[in-house]
Design a protein that fits this description.
By secondary structure, the protein is of the alpha/beta class. It is built from 12 helices and 17 strands. Strands 3, 4, 5, 6, 11, 12, 13, 14 and 15 form a 9-stranded mixed β-sheet that branches. The two termini are 35 Å apart. It binds flavin-adenine dinucleotide (FAD). GO terms for molecular function: oxidoreductase activity. Its EC number is 1.4.3.-.
Amino acid sequence: MASQIDHPSSWYAATANRSSPLPPLQGGARADVCVIGGGYTGLSAALHMAEAGLDVVLLEAGRVGSGASGRNGGQIHSGQRRDQDWLESRVGLDDAKALWRLAEDAKALLHDLIARHAIACDLRSGLIEADHKPGYVAHSHAYARKLNEVYDYPHAAPLTREEVREMVGSDAYYGGMIDHGGGHLHPLNLALGLAEAARRAGARLYEQSRALRIEEGGKVRVVTAAGSVEADWVLECGDGLQDGLDRRVDTHVMPICNYIAATAPLGERAREIISNGAAVADSRFVVNYYRLSGDGRLLFGGGESYKRGLRPNPGEFVRPYMLKIFPQLGDVSIDYGWGGVLGITMTRLPFVRKLSPRVLTAAGYSGQGVMLAPYFGKLLAQAVQGQLGEFDLLARLPVPAFPGGPLMRWPLLVAGMSYFALRDRL
Ligand SMILES: Cc1cc2nc3c(=O)[nH]c(=O)nc-3n(C[C@H](O)[C@H](O)[C@H](O)COP(=O)(O)OP(=O)(O)OC[C@H]3O[C@@H](n4cnc5c(N)ncnc54)[C@H](O)[C@@H]3O)c2cc1C
């Protein structure tokens, strides 16, 4: 996807920490592990393996962080993409608790990586989950209490309509909850920081080096336009942008496009939009998610598209979603607009698999990758070293293939997603 090759014209790119382009792979290389994809999953995998003394080559089709990891909303959620009620009903209480603990470990790893590698990515705490329908509020309050009591998580608290209104300058919500353990950060700077840490640990990172095919024999060979890597292991970490490389992943992970707009700096008005500096995600199926940037802009994510390639004019596309929540911003200009591609799965749980004895993948975090993906990269790194405990728990998750196979999954996805998007408006 040509538009994904370089960093987008986003507010993130405009405020990125300095990073020099890395060379493309030229000629034949040999490594213990070849990682495909320079987002959080691949970079964290490369970092952890290099720290463990493995010889790692990472191939990135564009620039590191040019995929979802450098374009997302930067929101740090707790738990999995599905809530604990859903997980308990599908995998039982024990596995649901294990998945919650895993997500908490992922959050701790994220904080640890940022601290240990001194990654300047403007990490802040607080995530408000705002209900756009009155009927959702009782569930949000019960859910906050459940997290407190059943999951020993003291950081979730219910919010009444008035409390949400004090924090968020919009009449669009009826209540919700606040997660003081959630938060937000500058996503591209996180990716660039992980890349630098991996490089310093000894991983060899190549940009503009798309993996075109994977040849499996005794060893595995990954072929790019200008070279190849022979390795004992291959980690497929391309998420939604990897579409077309490996049918075994394509049947379970689908790319969808999501969009963000950044307003001009709001100055004094910023505190009227979000008074406590938390991130906000609402209860719509096509979620509105937003937060203030360090320089007082509203970064507002809203709207999706379900076909290959990003829409033109993303800022204009997002603006009506933003004005529906904040009509008072009608006079404010949009300075930046961009889109990105993320991988989703049928059940919205991550797809983690041993695809063959020497090829592993982790993908499809379905909008929860800021917190989950670095941890899943670490799990891939551990699996390569024979530690399979949590990898096996995740490989058991119900993540069925999309109906229709690689070709027919597109029209079926569009039909399904459009139906739920329509329900948001009812
Ligand atoms: C607009 C948007 C908003 C989002 N908001 C949030 C949010 O607020 N909170 C949250 O938790 N999550 C959010 N997400 C999801 C989150 O960004 C992803 O889950 C996460 O970044 C996935 O990381 P990754 O490393 O697996 O994939 P990516 O970051 O997409 O990295 C994959 C990389 O692989 C490369 N690649 C693909 N194919 C090949 C190949 N054949 N050869 C070489 N390289 C290849 C790509 O170029 C890309 O750089 C959002 C995503 C988008 C797009």
